[in-house]
Amino acid sequence: MPRPAAPPTTAIDPPSDVQRDPRPVVVMRRLLTPIVSFVQTEAKGGLLLLTATVIALIWANSSWGDGYRHLLHTPIRIDIGGRGLQLPLEGWINDGLMAIFFFVVGLEIKREVLAGELASPRQAALPIAGAIGGVVVPALLYALINRGSDTLHGWGIPMATDIAFALGILALLGRRVPLWLMVFLTALAIVDDLLAVLVIAAFYTDAIDWTWLAIAGGLMAVLVGLNLRDSRSPTAYLLVGGLLWYAMLRSGIHATIAGVLLGMSIPASPRKDRRRFVDDVQHALDRFKRGHSPGPHPVNRDQAAALHQIVRAVNDVDSPLHRIENSLHPWVSYAIMPVFALANAGVELPLDRVVDALVAPAGVGVVVGLVLGKPLGIAAASWLAVRLGIADLPTGARWTHLIGAAILGGVGFTMSLFVTGLAFDDPANVAVAKIAILAASTVAAVTGLLFLHRVLPRAGAES
Length: 463
Fold this sequence. Notes:
By secondary structure, this protein is mostly helical. It is built from 17 helices and 2 strands. The protein has a two-stranded antiparallel ribbon with strand order 1-2.
């Protein structure tokens, strides 16, 4: 998770009745810090994503549009030890930088399954059900609209939710947004990403080179071995992960899958348990206090040793998964995803082309899938899970609020653009899908924002 920052103006601040007792306030802040930090980073990342999208659209439709397209197709070659790999700039972004994005996705999935909202089967049931419904229904609607067409292969385009944009929109509503709604939407999007990864691996792979796939399997076995040996060296994991990425790229399976597999292999358990951590830090603090002398003197040797002991204790209690995710998540949100948007959102938008795209089968399938299929699938599957007793609606939650989150699930921007590049080879189909994604995500964002603005209680009012 990203490092804690100042709490945003959302409903995840401790309620006023808790603030009367300082102890519950401390406990509440500790419990909410990870989700607060995650929401802040994703919301700000969503703003940068939107800015990059606007820049890409202006650039592609300006007199410099040819330069934009030429830049993306510029070949770049990297040679290491006599072996080289050449990809266009767009390929390095989509296959290379996005592998880091999927690496963080893998870390997030593992964390949520082991210690987050997906750790308890009962707690995880609602977002899992919603995510499954939000994947199946849009895909079916797209397939029905495009049956018998050469664009049927794009059925995976409308099935993903862009968590950065979705949480960014929720952040616009400030303190009116209940915590459970943000947690639900975050967990749903993480499960959504996992399902998208499985779909990409299973259905968007053309020809498989079994030799390179076997090499990738061997490298994955090395990562598992490092995990079982409790290796804590990020360098070792990243080195093997880089080789795994190359093997996946050569095998024919999309290279970004290597990022998810690498994320799953990173150790999530601390080397030192929390009780021993507290004892060691207390011992170091006592040692530091004993060496204290009045006045503005620099720390002495004993105090320096105590500080080093505290640093070692912190490193031992903080898992490699948490440290790596903490450091990479801002880079992904603030750099990699905006760069991806800049490279992929630049589509020419003459009026006649937009109209043609939105009435083409692929365009209609994407719009219907995202704007109608996503909210229908998420809300219906969630309702069915609660009705069957598989899941519980969070305390104080209202179905109208969940429906609002389901509408925001139709903002499929990043992953939808990514799947578009895998689904279609024909530039005309790619352009149609991109126009439809931009239109549908805009409609879903505005509709979800207006709907939640109407149904959420006013700030300070009873929910």
